[in-house]
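quick one, 80 residues, struct below
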Amino acid sequence: MNEKVDKERYQASIARLEEIFRGISDTTNQVSTWRCPYKNAQDRCTAGFRCRNQSKFDIKDNLSLCTGSDNLDYRAAWEV
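---
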């Protein structure tokens, strides 16, 4: 297997991947302004610690229901 790499095609592929990851990153940054980073798509808490927003009554697959508000900016919890 001694094929030459098409540099233009390679660069276009890298640029496309960068565009895809930039979109993912932008969405993550936007969502992080109002959604707890430990809350999964099923509104279950994935944190490895206790949180006051974890329901003690609604537990499924060892994950508590997150009862936290999505109207909060959680970024201050990890920004310095």
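Strands lie at 54-60, 63-66.
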